[in-house]
């Protein structure tokens, strides 16, 4: 009952005129950024980070949450209408979604995606409301050894499990950790990797790095390689954007199964929504193969419904993990964690005690955001698609200008502008050679936590590092990490064997 009372108070705060406006603004920005090619919610949050410091914290995080959820809606619109997903989390939705569009059912495909995202996000929000306080109480049992184990879990999972190349994932992680240790050590007072420059004594701003890596690096990459230009034809939706009773009955089980698959991935640092969306799609495809009249490959509505619900349920639970544990499962969540720290807030059990108004207003805003996004996307998806008509030079020139203005406004230092350019070029090179960016961001965000936890644990045990594995919670985290790594390794070996077997069968077939 206390939870429902606190949620009710949160709704009173979230439904104030100012906060309601920021919910709508966040949803609008997130959907717009998701529709545009090559952009995503992580870039939008990174760009907004420097300019939201003047906002009250509750308003800022309500807007960030709207951007986070809205980005997934926009990505799906792009994938369905042009077969070009805005982010990796929307790839699974394009397989059957675009076939539905080619079959003249684009409006119904957009409605299926919007309703699925609403169901997944809404159910996840309900789970978060009741689970987040429990997780926060559980995290109160965490000491330095447990927080170090949690950081190691996040490092290993995001850099090895969800990347195609483990070496590149680890390289990205160590770049982020290297940037995180630049500056004067808070305990010893020694300058580390500052090159005797007073500008680096306070370290490298996370805001500068995120904007440079996620926004400016993308601009340079598109300008040089133009990978995101697509010759695909924009399919115009026809018909009514809602489903018949038969189609709704067909999609409902897939929505629920996708939601169930996505929920646990919201608390596992496995890269975000990519894995659960593919798992949901694969499950529906296996179930479809048992039917008398398989529909996959012809525009199966369940092949679109399940991934959409899975992606949004993962995102909803990710917000709960961020608030209760301080654990980011994706680049966007990592940037939001950095935003909490910029406001002097630390997610976890203390956040629920010290800033309950913010926490419960933010949780209430999740429900409001789902409704707002459904209203924005169900009837107006084609209007969002017209954003693709913006000339590419104008779009990316505006992003570049916004990057520079945001960094200079937050720091007032020309050195940070030079740093923005330098790190942006690093981001471009990482994209060009296929090095993932999420491990860098998470390494930089959680690096200080891991260092501080390691030092505190060792000092409390008089230099005995066995304290890191003496806690039951830490041992469980390490055990789960080992299982995740073994599972990932087995899957990759199976994929390689399948590719090798397919390659051996091709010459045989050719000779026949």
From TrEMBL:
Keyword Transmembrane helix: yes
Any Pfam family hit: TctA
InterPro entries listed in its UniProt record: DUF112_TM (IPR002823)
Membrane spanning stretches: 12-35, 47-73, 109-135, 147-163, 170-191, 203-224, 321-340, 360-382, 394-411, 417-446, 467-490
Keywords: Membrane, Transmembrane, Transmembrane helix
Keyword Cell inner membrane in annotation: no
Protein name per UniProt: Tripartite tricarboxylate transporter permease TctA
Biological source species: Brevibacterium salitolerans
Primary gene name: tctA_2
């Amino acid at each position: 009952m206390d939870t429902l009372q606190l949620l009710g108070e949160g709704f009173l705060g979230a439904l104030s005129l100012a906060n309601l406006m920021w919910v709508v603004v966040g949803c609008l920005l997130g959907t717009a950024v998701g529709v545009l090619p090559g952009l995503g919610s992580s870039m939008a949050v990174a760009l907004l980070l420097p300019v939201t410091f003047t906002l009250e914290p509750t308003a800022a995080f309500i807007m960030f949450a709207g951007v986070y959820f809205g980005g997934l809606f926009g990505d799906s619109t792009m994938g369905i209408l042009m077969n070009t997903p805005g982010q990796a989390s929307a790839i699974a939705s394009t397989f059957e979604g675009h076939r539905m569009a080619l079959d003249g059912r684009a409006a119904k495909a957009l409605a299926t995606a919007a309703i699925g995202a609403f169901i997944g996000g809404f159910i996840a929000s309900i789970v978060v409301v009741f689970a987040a306080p429990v997780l926060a109480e559980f995290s109160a049992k965490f000491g330095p050894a447990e927080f170090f184990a949690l950081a190691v879990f996040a490092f290993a999972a995001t850099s090895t499990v969800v990347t195609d190349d483990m070496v590149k994932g680890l390289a990205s992680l160590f770049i982020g950790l290297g940037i995180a240790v630049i500056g004067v050590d808070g305990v010893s007072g020694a300058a580390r990797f500052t090159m005797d420059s007073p500008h680096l004594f306070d370290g490298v701003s996370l805001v500068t790095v995120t904007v440079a890596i996620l926004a400016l690096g993308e601009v340079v990459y598109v300008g040089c390689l133009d990978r995101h230009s697509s010759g695909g034809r924009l399919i115009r939706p026809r018909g009514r954007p809602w489903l018949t009773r038969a189609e709704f009955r067909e999609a409902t089980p897939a929505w629920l199964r996708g939601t169930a698959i996505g929920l646990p991935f919201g608390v596992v640092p496995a890269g975000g929504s990519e894995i659960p969306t593919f798992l949901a799609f694969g499950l529906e495809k296996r179930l479809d193969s048992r039917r008398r009249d398989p529909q996959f490959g012809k525009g199966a509505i369940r092949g679109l419904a399940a991934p959409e619900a899975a992606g949004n349920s993962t995102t909803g639970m990710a917000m709960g993990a961020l608030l209760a544990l301080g654990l980011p499962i994706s680049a966007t969540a990592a940037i939001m964690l950095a935003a909490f720290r910029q406001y002097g807030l630390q997610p976890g059990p203390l956040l629920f005690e010290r800033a309950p108004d913010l926490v419960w207003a933010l949780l209430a805003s999740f429900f409001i955001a789902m409704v707002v996004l459904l209203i924005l996307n169900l009837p107006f998806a084609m209007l969002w698609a017209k954003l693709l008509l913006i000339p590419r030079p104008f779009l990316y020139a505006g992003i570049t200008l916004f990057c520079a203005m945001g960094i200079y406004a937050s720091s007032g230092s020309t050195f940070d502008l030079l740093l923005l350019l330098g790190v942006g070029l690093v981001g471009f090179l990482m994209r060009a050679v296929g090095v993932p960016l999420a491990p860098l961001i998470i390494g930089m965000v959680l690096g200080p936590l891991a260092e501080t936890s390691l030092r505190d644990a060792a000092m409390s045990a008089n230099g005995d590092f066995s304290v890191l594995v003496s806690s039951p919670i830490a041992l469980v985290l390490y055990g789960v990490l080992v299982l995740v790594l073994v599972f990932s390794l087995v899957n990759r070996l199976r994929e390689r064997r399948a590719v090798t077997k397919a390659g051996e069968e091709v010459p045989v077939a050719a000779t026949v």
